[in-house]
Specification:
Shape: elongated
Number of helices: 0
Strand order of the largest sheet: 4-5-6-7
Largest sheet: 4 strands, antiparallel
Number of strands: 9
Low-confidence stretches: none
Length: about 140
């Protein structure tokens, strides 16, 4: 995801099992910014890309898919200031449903609306009766 000013690109790095990082690289130089978002990915949904991000607040923050303390998946934002640890600025924005897993999202150009894509995982056991024996 390229920043609004075209200077930076964000990406997700899987650092170890059950951990990921959102990182940022300066496009012109290829230098990786001294800044990151560390994430736990211990959720029950293997279909979610934790750390999937979008630039937010005109490039002053990054919104991303993450887990809350109870394991619910939603969208957080964290300030982007190269060279500074901005973990304390992390704040929930949307999602975190009991029965839906936030998978992806979009942010309106003016930053006033977020659209969520969610996964509703269900498991069903069905019994088929009255089948004829086909001889196989």
């Amino acid at each position: 995801e390229v920043s609004p000013d075209g200077r930076w690109a964000l990406y997700v790095l899987s650092t170890q099992p059950k951990r990921a990082e959102v990182r940022v690289v300066e496009i012109a130089t290829g230098d990786i910014a001294d800044w990151q978002i560390r994430l736990s990915v211990e959720s029950q949904s293997p279909n979610v890309t934790y750390g999937r991000g979008r630039w937010f607040d005109e490039g002053r923050a990054i919104a991303f898919v993450g887990l809350d303390e109870s394991g619910k998946i939603g969208i957080y934002a964290q300030d982007f200031v190269p060279g500074e640890d901005t973990t304390a600025t992390r704040r929930p924005l949307a999602g975190f449903y009991d029965n839906l897993n936030t998978e992806s999202f979009g942010v309106s150009p003016d930053g006033t609306a977020i659209v969520l894509a969610v996964i509703q995982e269900t498991r069903t056991l069905m019994l088929a009766e009255g089948l004829e024996d086909s001889g196989n």
